[in-house]
Specification:
Elements: H1 12-23, H2 29-41, H3 44-60, H4 68-88, E1 99-102, E2 105-108, H5 112-115, H6 118-123, E3 132-136, H7 145-150, E4 159-161, H8 169-176, E5 186-188, H9 195-203, E6 213-215, H10 223-230, E7 240-242, H11 249-256, E8 267-269, H12 276-283, E9 294-296, H13 303-310, E10 321-323, H14 331-338, E11 347-349, H15 357-365, E12 374-376, H16 384-392, E13 401-403, H17 411-420
Parallel strand pairs: 2-3, 3-4, 4-5, 5-6, 6-7, 7-8, 8-9, 9-10, 10-11, 11-12, 12-13
Antiparallel strand pairs: 1-2
Helix pairs in contact: 1-2, 2-3, 3-4, 8-9, 9-10, 10-11, 11-12, 12-13, 13-14, 14-15, 15-16, 16-17
Length: 427
């Protein structure tokens, strides 16, 4: 045994604390409680791990440009280098570079063949596997589903991602019927083309009742699949839902808006669903979304009429992020947005539209955008006139990130913008 390495036996108190941390993935408190327990009850390896957890939590709160990140990252690297063998144990056999730690817990991204079957089952025998929070299986496909649902690793997970696996109906049925999914709080099945049948199977699975995050983007889900999700009795704990790149259309949106699965959402991604103005109008009926903070409605053919419909939505004023890029918007729509009470908005994404200087001037003059930190206007019809309005605006005290790429803005004006807005994107 490597010096300092834990024995194969699993400490029940530690197991319970790790489970609690995985079930509350966005909350620092269970992880801090875990660190305290390690410090009070563990050996030298545990003490180092307690420090590692606290440092990672601190690092996660810092901005990318914060100078303190370098010192913290160096300390974390030194701790991991010293204790890697003790912390990972046999998990290192999956792949030398297929792991990382996020906020103190383990994330694995191996090739499916290296984890499924007897090799993976052997990993589940010791304490190290209890630290595994998220598993992303690369090279996964329908043929691997029978081995996955039998895997002894699966019950330990809080989060599972199976990207680009081309899962068919029989594979989805086998997966969603597995009680080993019951501890999941996050499931990512992006780019699997599961279709309406797959959406229906997800909606009907009692083993997914603990989900807080569901990512099923680019899966050929149409109005029927949207209706199935809306009627689910098991998806009512969702806080984040990604349905982007499907084909819900206005009909699917109509089915979703009255559903209880939207009640607790903080993040909703509906990009690329052919919603049109009718879909935007339907969304305004979702008055129950009082916790929503971010919504992505890009590439939905909304046009100016769609934005006009959204202005009647009671949830608009609570948003911190609004994405409307690629919706064929003109300045009139932006002028309407600028007059809306968006006092909490921090991120506004309006790229790849048809916005001219009049729309930007309206944004710069808006009394409601005091919290705005990021404004993306790339690939529009903006000149130095609109850029100067932003530069000279007294109404944007927190704006630091402006993207005006692929507009008719001069180099001189871009340099001036970068002096005021530190993260202004160069041409």
């Amino acid at each position: 045994m490597v010096r300092g390495q834990q024995s194969a036996s699993v400490r029940p108190e530690l197991q319970a604390l790790l489970h609690a941390a995985k079930q509350q993935p966005d909350d620092d408190l269970p992880r801090l409680v875990l660190a305290d327990w390690l410090e009070e009850n563990g050996n030298a390896v545990d003490l180092a791990r307690a420090e590692f957890i606290r440092l990672q939590l601190r690092l996660a709160k810092l901005a990318p440009t914060d100078p303190r990140r370098r010192r913290l990252s160096r300390s974390l690297s030194e701790l991991l280098e010293t204790h890697r063998n003790a912390w990972l144990g046999p998990i290192q056999s999956v792949h030398q570079y297929a792991y990382r730690f996020e906020r103190g817990l383990l994330v694995l991204e191996p090739e499916a063949e290296r984890l499924l079957g007897s090799a993976g089952d052997a990993l589940a025998e010791g304490e190290a596997i209890h630290w595994l929070e998220r598993l992303v299986l690369r090279g996964f496909n329908s043929d691997a589903v029978p081995r996955l649902v039998q895997s002894a690793v699966l019950p330990h997970l809080g989060s599972l991602a199976l990207p680009s696996g081309q899962l068919g109906a029989s594979a989805m049925r086998l997966l969603t019927d597995s009680p080993k999914l019951s501890n999941l709080v996050a499931l990512d099945l992006n780019y699997n083309h599961i279709g309406n049948v797959g959406a229906e199977l997800i909606a009907r699975s009692p083993h997914l009742a603990g989900l807080q995050t569901l990512d099923i983007w680019i899966n050929k889900i149409g109005p029927r699949g949207g209706q199935a999700l809306a009627q689910s009795d098991y998806l009512r704990g969702l806080r984040s839902l990604n349905l982007g790149g499907n084909a819900l259309q206005a009909t699917g949106m109509e089915a979703l808006v009255d559903s209880p699965i939207l009640d607790r959402l903080e993040l909703l991604l509906l990009w690329g669903n052919q919603l049109g103005p009718a879909g935007a109008q339907a969304l305004t009926r979702a008055t129950q979304m009082t916790q929503l903070r971010s919504i992505y409605l890009n590439e939905n053919r909304l046009g100016n009429k769609g934005v006009e419909a959204l202005l009647g939505w009671n949830c608009l004023r609570q948003l911190e992020l609004l994405s409307l890029w690629g919706n064929n918007l003109k300045s009139a729509a932006v002028q309407q947005l600028a007059a809306a009470p968006l006092e909490r908005l921090e991120v506004l994404l309006l790229s790849e539209n048809r916005i001219s200087d009049d729309g930007v001037v309206a944004l710069a003059a808006s009394p409601y955008l005091n919290c705005l930190r990021r404004l993306d206007l790339h690939s529009n019809n903006i000149t130095d006139i609109g850029a100067r309005a932003l530069l000279e605006s007294p109404n944007l005290p927190n704006l630091i990130d402006v993207n005006l790429r692929s507009n008719a803005v001069s180099d001189f004006m871009l340099r001036a913008l970068r002096e005021r807005f530190p993260l202004c994107s160069p041409e």
